[in-house]
Amino acid sequence: MTGHRATPLRLWRRILTSLLTLLLVVLAGGFAAAAFVRYSPGFDVDENSWNPRISAATAEALQARRQQKTSLPVFYARYLRAALHGDFGKSESLQAPVAELLRERAAISASLVFTGTIGGLLGGGLLAWLAVWPRQRVLQAGSASISGFLLAIPPAVLALGFFFLQAPLSLAVALTIMPRVFGTLRALLTDLRSSSDLLTARARGIGPVVIAWRYVVGTAAPQLASLGGVALVLAFGAIIPIEALCDVPGLGQLAWKAALARDLPLLCAIALLITLLTAVVAAAGDLLSGSRERNLA
Amino acid sequence: MKTPRRVAWIVLSVVCLAAVLAPWIAPYRYDQQFRDFPATAPGAQFPMGTDEIGRDRLSRLLYATRVSLALAPAAAAVSIVLGLGFSLLALSRARWTREALSGITTLSLSLPWIFLFVILRAELPLNTDPATSILLTFALMGIAGWAWAGRVFSASLRSLAGADWLLQARASGMHSWRIAAVHMWPHLRSIALAQFRVLIPAYILAEASLGLLGLGVAEPLPSWGNLLKDLQHPDTIRANPWALAPLALLMLVMICLEALGSDTNNEVTV
To answer: Inter-chain contact B212–A227, Cβ cutoff 8 Å?
Structure first.
């Protein structure tokens, strides 16, 4: 009885620890981004104060307004307090509320990231499946060569190619992820292929679809959950050059513009959002794989 | 040695040799401008033609190879040293040190690399000189990428921590630095080499992406990244297909590095 009660308690403790770690990681991510921008050379100078047409008083007022933001902890504390109420500040470069900018662009990036990630995982899985096909050296060498070739192309170049060919950019994200998950999936399938469960299932004449679903996806679910998380992080990284170069109005392009303009409120919000998304995905992957392993045990 | 590996070694050796000998074999200096010959087609004077502002493409490609091939391994070395250092610190008995380092690693792994690079690189002044820009670009890569190597080292060190020989070395009063250098390093050397081989292509690709975004090595110094900027203008490529030479060379080197590190790429490639 004690054991039955202790297990959910341990699970809740684990979830609580994960949430706390998540919160700390997100706060630290936002703070790190703010610190990078704040201590960058030339941050204290407002370019408008150099305008020869403005009066000395206006120039001083502009400079004073800039100086108000110099205390990083104060800025960050105020920023977080406002963010808790849904106010992420106003973008200095785009002159629009940050929350609105994020809302407008999130859907575009989310669609690119999710379709790209699913496509990449499916493509990587298919390539890995071909790579472990028994007694087919041509298939094995071919799939490894395709993966190696795709890995050699910078994601930004891949995106430019798709942009000029007017092909869907989510395919560029998928082709960026595909070779990067190929090695792990191939190793996973190689291990599974020689497992006694799979050999027994095949000997009993179970169909390939059931084998794939129950004995491959079912058995490797923890690893696949972790890999899915890693693939999402890779996709977040890939969309920055893709959106910036191909003029896609998503979060990646917004991050790029914010970095170039040293737009502190916008960079902080994007850093918080990206850190939150990637940390949530990583924590979910860990929790899923942990609970699955415990169930199997 | 298998044939693909042998071929990869030969190709990489030729490319590295060309990069080392760039000042002697390049027809011109990388920044020498021929104002009367902008965007010239390939010919006897300029074997690969010239770029939009009249600089010899072949000379710039040779120097770019030098920059990219010299600095990506240097950045990988920085990541390995930092990763190893942090992992050794994480072995500390103080719980808060371990927790703090674990948090820093999670944070570093949570942020997409390119996002970090874009923020860090964009914060440099616009008038940064080329030499400083290459050092900072690759140093930032080395610093930003330490967590991947650190995670692998931490896992290996944790598995070594309970070994009998380690307990025996500690019991005999050996200093921890001596234990690390004499007993642990031989176990970690092969992991460090494998990580080194994984990180080099990752940094070459990262520099290429940063260069395309205009945040890599500053002009007039060439790198594979900033030479790829021509790809944004399809008309330039149609007029002179040699503009694709940097991409072809980068891909060739990447495929060779891939072939050499094929025994280590079962993990997710960064």
So the answer is: no
